[in-house]
Amino acid sequence: MPSALPQVVAIEPTNDCNLRCVMCPRAKARKPIGFMDFALFAKVIDQLVALGVGAVALHLSGEPLLHPRIVEMVAYARDAGVGHVQFATNGTLLDAGVAAGLIAAGLDSLVVSMDAASAWAYCPADAERADVEAIDDNVRRLLSLRANAGADNPKVSMHIIAMSSTADLVPAFLARWRPVVDRVSEQPLLSWAGRVGVTDSVPLRLCGYCI
Fold it and tell me: Above 90 in pLDDT, residue 116?
């Protein structure tokens, strides 16, 4: 008989973010910006482990690396017995110290949502821009630190959302990252259960989470 437990439980360390990308639903969010208390996080993790939940994702709508104790959160979850700890990030805050900390803490997988292969397409002109070259450097440094540590994890996936504004950049994105990271994924533009209008979507040329 199949278990009623979810395979993965999402825990949101923060709903804050340092970017305002066109495809993100955060602009429509009504809840106040906040950061999860570490004691509450530990209590939730302990309860999930007691229930037998095997994996947690430390993200939802915010940027996890904004939480000042995100590395400790990963370490606590792994030490408590969570079998797989993962999260998604925009990669802008993945500096050397954070990268080394996440490797040492035992992060299992990391998705970097770059969503473009050039700076002008990453975020529109009327939104905060991200330094694509800096993100590129951050990801490559993480992989180098992982290799130097003799570690297998975190497995690193590069993620791009299929939109008409970035569709022509997908081949360049794939060419750039396939030889470098563990996985490349192309995902559809989501309507978030119909709460966000989707007018910029295009058909996927890749299956989700494929090489």
Answer: no
Q: Residues near 115 by Cβ (< 8 Å), separated by ≥ 6?
A: 21, 23, 122, 159, 160, 161, 163, 166
Q: Read out DSSP for 137-184? A: HHHHHHHHHHHHTT---SEEEEEEEEBTTTGGGHHHHHHHHTTTSSEE
* Domain annotation for the chain: domains and CATH numbers: 9-188 (3.20.20.70)
**E strand map for the chain:** 9-10, 55-57, 84-89, 109-113, 155-162, 183-188
pLDDT at 61 (0 to 100): 83
Give CA–CA dist 70/73, Å, rounded.
Answer: 5
CA distance 25 to 61: 8
pLDDT at 169: 74
pTM (2 d.p.): 0.83
For residues 201 and 178, what is the distance between their CA atoms, to the nearest angstrom? 23
Please, what is the angle between helix 96-105 and helix 70-80, to 10°? 10
Q: Which residue has the tokens 């050397």?
A: 96
Query: If DSSP codes are grouped into helix, strand and coil, which group holds residue 120?
Result: helix
Tens digit of each residue's pLDDT (9 = 90 or more) over 133-184? 788 899 999 999 999 999 999 999 998 877 776 677 778 788 888 999 999 9
